[in-house]
Amino acid sequence: MKKPNLGMWLLSALVFTGISVTSIGCMGTMGTMDGSVGVNIGDQPVWGPTGYDRADYYYIPDVDSYYSVSEHQYIYRDGSTWKHGASLPSGSSYAGYDPYHSYKAVVNEDKPYQNNAAHQAKYGSFKGKTDQPVIRDSRDPKYFVNKDHPEHENWAKEHNR
Asked: Does residue 65 contact residue 74 with C-beta atoms inside 8 Å?
């Protein structure tokens, strides 16, 4: 019977160790081990739709506008240019808009307003839809992290925050 080659065994061990260390290092760049990779539920407004752990922008078909979750600003058209503002301007095209009772499509892309025609085509049929569940009304504990959720205070006490 042939003896195992010590050099080959050491090389195999070194390669295995390298792969293991690299894999662990890559996991660290993806987020925490608790599964919170890319989660921004706490930053989303309580009128945002449920079902999304991450939302960069909402497209709002009722007013053909966007909301930036990270900037806490609406992005709306003023003539041929897109403007940013903490609220939508007062005007006939925005009259009656209620964020709690309007459809919001999550759009996770950079500068989504540059693809406005595609979003109009894709989500235009949701214009006037008023029954989309919102974070404020959800009883799913994952939304309690949101400081504006009605259950946040209880959640914070329970988690010593």
From this structure: yes
**Domain annotation covers residue 35:** no
Q: Let me know if residue 16 belongs to a domain.
A: no
50 located within any domain = yes
How many independent structural domains does the chain possess? 1
pTM above 0.90, yes or no: no
Tokens of 58: 């909402």
33-69 pLDDT per residue, tens: 334 458 899 999 999 999 999 999 999 999 999 999 9
Angle at the Cα of 10 from the Cα atoms of 7 and 16, rounded to 5 degrees: 140
Residue type, 84: H
Within 8 A by CB and 6+ apart from 19, the residues are none
